[in-house]
Amino acid sequence: MVFVASTESILSIILIIGLGYLLRRRGWFADSFSGNISKLIMNIALPASIFVSVLKYLTRDKLFALSGGLVYTILSIIIGYLLAYFMVFIFKIPVGRKGVFINAVVNANTIFIGLPLNIALFGENSLPFFLIYYVTNTVSTWAFGALIIAHDNPEKKSGSTKFNLKKLLPPPLIGFLVALVFLLGNLPVPTFINSTLTYVGNMVTPLSLIYIGIILCDAGLRNIRLDRETLLALFGRFILSPVVMIILIFALERYLGQVPIVEAKTLVIQSAGPALAVLPILANEANGDVKYATNIVTTSTVLFMVVVPLLSGLLNMLF
After folding, report:
1. pLDDT tens digits, 33-62
2. Which of 123, 137, 140, 297 has the fewest CB atoms within 10 Å around its CB?
3. Where are the chain's structural domains?
């Protein structure tokens, strides 16, 4: 059951990546097409997707009710950043890969893979606990993760301190903040606006995956390999991140009370999700190592099919 659910959640993603690879190889996409996709996703589709997702999956009551559980996710994210920075320093991750590496360790692909998988594994009653991780992961990605990648620009001149509001407030983060205003202010969104943003936002996943397929084609499948930095990122994503969450759940039990089994399993599974599908796009925007980012997204997505059953078996023994 667990293996089937994880496989079904991943196979469609792999097929869309394969479609992008095939169409690029057949010459359907011009050289400039991947750059155009990158701009469309980052500036239009992602802000729309995040805005709609927040208002669809959250309410004011849910947001306040879930505030207690945010302790685990916030602490796990903070510890994750500290561990990732420590790994960058110890293993001397090169410029252009640092930001991608840190994001790969800390931030997961929650909404596109985590949500359907979580419902398949634990049912609709796990949705409130999923939202705990989703909110934290979203804020972490666009308030911190995207900035880290933006500042890890190998073409940035040394000593440059020019203030750039666009880097401080990327469009996806603006979409999240605007959604919070509508949510907390209980402001209605006109139906036609909501429908338009939903249609536009729904482009994020397929376009991101097609973009990955194009990059894979340009790089050549033979060049996609498990090098040292990729293996370290996968170690952080699939081992460090869930282990930190498990330790926090047990360590804080005496202070915050026992965590419901479904909540504990949800938080751990989400913490071990594959890398963000938009990592190559973020790397491209910052002139980073796009091939490295693509490598991490592809390998972590494929390996996730194996990680989920193993992790689920471990959770059944622990909780």
Report:
1. 877 887 888 788 888 888 888 888 777 777
2. 123
3. 59-187+223-318
